[in-house]
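We read letters as residues; the fold follows as C-alpha cells. A sample entry reads:
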Amino acid sequence: MTATASPPGAAPGRTRLRVVRLRPRSATAVALVSVIGLLAFLWPLFVSPGSGLAHSTDAPLVFALVLPLLLAVVLAELSEGGMDVKAVAMLGVLSAIGAALRPLGAGTAGLETVFFLLVLGGRVFGAGFGFVLGATTLFASALVTGGVGPWLPFQMLGAAWVGWGAGLLPPARGRVELVLLVAYGAVAGLFYGLMLNLSFWPFATGMTGSLSFVPGEPLLDNLHRFVVFTLATSLGWDIGRAVTTGVLVAVTGRAVLGALRRAARRAAFEEPVAFAASDPTRDADVRH
C-alpha cells in the first residue's frame, strides 16, 4: 500500500480507512482452512465407531501436520497483493509485542495477556490482518516460551479466528465501540478455550465415566460428556481468559486503538477520498 497524493481541490482531512485487502482467492483460502480447521476440532463429535480415527491416538498428529500447511497457504495468499512492506512491518511489530506479553500470563489461572492485542489489531486493520496476526503471534510466543508441539497449530488457528472475528465486527465509534470490543473479547476468550478443549479431550488420560470421550456414541451423548469435561477441568481458566481479555480491552482499548489508527494514517494505510478539481475555465463557460 502506497501513499496517495491528494488531488487538486481535495478537501483536507477527508480519508477512508484502507485495510489489508482480501481478494476472492484469499477469502477462499481462509474459508477453506477454517472449514478444515473446524473438522480438526470437531471430529470427535461425529466420528463413527468403525473409523480408524475413533481408536487411534494419531489424529492430533495428523491434523498438526496438515494445519500448518494450510495456514502457510493462507498466509501466502494474504501477503500476495494484500499486504505491502508497511503492513508486514506492522504485523511484525504487533506479533513481537504479543509474543513478549504472553509469558506474563501464559494461561496461568486463566490469565491471558495477549488476546486483547489480537482483538484491537483486528479491529483497526481488518479481518485479513487479524487472521494473520493471531497465527503469527501464537507462533512467535511458542518459540519464545518453548511451547512448540502438536497443540501449536490448533492454538494458532484458534487465535487467528479471534483476530478475524474482531475485523468483522460492525462499525461503531466511541464508547459503543469499546463496549462492543469488551464483549467480543470476553466471548472470544471463552470460544478459544472451548475449541482447544475439543482438540485434546479425546486423548485426555485418566478421564472416566461421564468425562471421557466414547468413540461412536451419539452426538448428543458425547456433547454432554464434553460439556461435563469442560465444566470440571477448564471452565475456571476459560472464564479467567475471558475476564482478563475484557478488562485489558476496557483499560487499554481507547489508547491502543488511537495509537494503531495514528500509525495506520502515518503509514498510509489510509488514502484521501478523491474529489473532482474545480476548472476555472469550465466554470467561466458555464456562467456565460
User: Anything to note?
Assistant: The beta strands are 15-17, 270-272. Residues 20-274 form one domain. DSSP finds ten helices and two strands in the chain. The mean pLDDT is 75.
